[in-house]
Amino acid sequence: MYDAIVVGAGVVGCVVAGELARRGGKKVLVIDKRDHIAGNCYDEYDEYGIMVHVYGPHIFHTEIERVADDYRSSCICTAVRTDRWTDQVRV
Ligand SMILES: Cc1cc2nc3c(=O)[nH]c(=O)nc-3n(C[C@H](O)[C@H](O)[C@H](O)COP(=O)(O)OP(=O)(O)OC[C@H]3O[C@@H](n4cnc5c(N)ncnc54)[C@H](O)[C@@H]3O)c2cc1C
């Protein structure tokens, strides 16, 4: 038996499930129609060891280490930065 069922293992579902489990002590079932967690933030490595952003390029950025740690531990998205940086985009 579960205390809660979370539909969708994207960032939101993973964080909600993590909070319910870690802080609330609840037993949580997370289901997703895809065969992986992290939703559109899902990353994987190809045969050359290069990180591929499967659903489009993304970097999760925060200056708060705790938020970054939660993000890293809650889902597979590894593209997390806590340093200040600037990007140049050519259009
Ligand atoms: C190309 C692109 C670039 C982005 N770049 C950035 C970035 O640089 N920085 C940033 O912070 N954000 C970025 N984002 C936004 C970020 O990806 C989203 O904010 C984040 O993924 C939203 O998380 P979510 O959990 O709400 O939804 P999703 O990631 O969409 O996850 C929802 C999950 O629910 C599952 N699901 C849906 N319906 C059902 C169902 N009926 N039954 C079972 N499972 C279901 C889906 O399979 C999916 O896994 C980008 C998004 C895109 C598309």
Structural features:
two-stranded parallel ribbon, binds flavin-adenine dinucleotide, Rossmann fold, two-stranded antiparallel ribbon, 6 strands, alpha/beta, 91 residues, globular
Structure in words:
It is a single chain. The strands form 3 sheets. This protein has a two-stranded parallel sheet with strand order 1-2. The model has no long low-confidence stretch (mean pLDDT 86). With 91 residues, the chain is of the alpha/beta class. The protein has one domain: Rossmann fold. The protein has 2 helices and 6 strands. Flavin-adenine dinucleotide binds next to helix 1.
Q: What is this structure's SSE topology?
A:
Layout: E1 4-7, H1 11-22, E2 28-31, E3 43-45, E4 51-53, E5 60-61, H2 65-74, E6 80-81
Bound molecules: flavin-adenine dinucleotide.
The site of flavin-adenine dinucleotide has 19 residues, from α1.
In whole angstroms, the N-to-C terminal distance is: 52 Å
Structural class: alpha/beta
CATH fold node name: Rossmann fold
The beta-strand count equals 6
Number of helical elements: 2
Based on CA inertia axes, which overall geometry fits?
globular
Biggest sheet layout: 2 strands, parallel
CA radius of gyration: 15 Å
CATH superfamily: NAD(P)-binding Rossmann-like Domain
Mean pLDDT: 86
Q: Return the domain count.
A: 1
Report strand order across the widest sheet: 1-2
Bin the helical content: 10-25%
H/E topology pattern:
EHEEEEHE
Low-confidence regions: none
Supply the CATH class.
Alpha Beta
CATH architecture tag? 3-Layer(aba) Sandwich
- As a percent range, the share of strand residues is 15-25%
